[in-house]
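chain below, 415 aa
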Amino acid sequence: MKHIILGNGPAGVVAAETLRRSAPQDDILLVGKEDAPPYSRMAIPYLLEGDIDESGTYLRKSDDHFARLGIAQHCGRAVALDTERRTLLFADGHFESYDRLLIATGSHPVRPPIPGIDLEQVKTCWTLDDARAIAAMAMPGKRVLQLGAGFIGCIIMEALVKRGVDLTVIEMGDRMVPRMMTPQAGGMIKSWVEKQGVKVLTRVGVDRIERGSNAPLRVTLTTGQHHDCDLLIVAAGVVPNVAFLEETPIHVAKGILVDDRMQTSVAGIYAAGDVAEAPDLQSGRHLVAAIQPNAADQARVAALNMAGQPARMKGVLAINVLDSLGMISTSFGEWQGVPGGEGVERGDEALGRYISLQFDGDVLVGATAIGLTEHVGVLRGLIQAKTRLGDWKKILLTTPTRFAEAYLACQRPHS
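prediction:
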């Protein structure tokens, strides 16, 4: 049996290792398209901060790790898939056949259709090559404009501040991290970040980018304002890498649609990680949950099924944990609430504390928190287990910070 794993990020690596343990005699080919060992994109900000070198981003530290496991590696980009013949065509013109295929090709940064977006001083922050280019330009005192204040944007922001640049962040939404934080929580993060010296403009976009006379770039905002800068970093979100599947029978929506075994609409072909659109834990609707723990869980399930060992995902749970210049924020599950549900929200900006709990009946389905790091994982546990809270729901609606007590009480066996 020959397995091909397309993508050598966290999902691909976990899948390859799981396959080797589950199918000791099978052939495994791990394919990546960058000329670098398998690495974690989430480590790139630490590289920009200078906390680690490039080897610190590598997912496995020994050079012979995959060779010792009998996992072959190839550097290449898949451009076409023939699901009937079970072959992959790569950009260099060569074919690979397979018996089982895992698509873990991840995602790529969105580059909005803005005039001037391809100028040399406009960068995304997604690959090691991107990190090298940004490190060369983002020197102390340089004027940096960042487009996007979502999850990735906030992670990059921390690294840029530590590099000593003059940073301005612009966000088209009405608050920072609008896809993972409630309005009040996103506003609190914005206020905190501004106190740390970062300029933040919300409800604003970029109209065009031109070469400047007093700086490498002159950026015109949708408000008509002009900003001169040395570097523009685009952090406007990511989209799954699915272009090579256009002529195949594999069903693709936002990502590749998979079932709870991580199998696609074509038998023997699986998907995991940022590229997969899997059933949600609460609603059952398909969603892309682009976080590393989710990628690892999906990869294990996919690999076990590829090896003939039945395994299922209980459902994807949206999880976001963010450190915004020292302000820790988290959101879990249906943090926006559900139709017909109830919720509670409490915040104290002076203390940097905030919590929002969302319920469906007496089950906690979503939560948002700022500055509440102790026992915050309990919120995930309550949501993931779909714990019936009973009378504790009324208590939490009044005093939501008692969630740890509720968890302990609901774990005790009833007499």
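The chain has a mean pLDDT of 94. The CA atoms of residues 211 and 371 lie 42 Å apart.
thats it, cya
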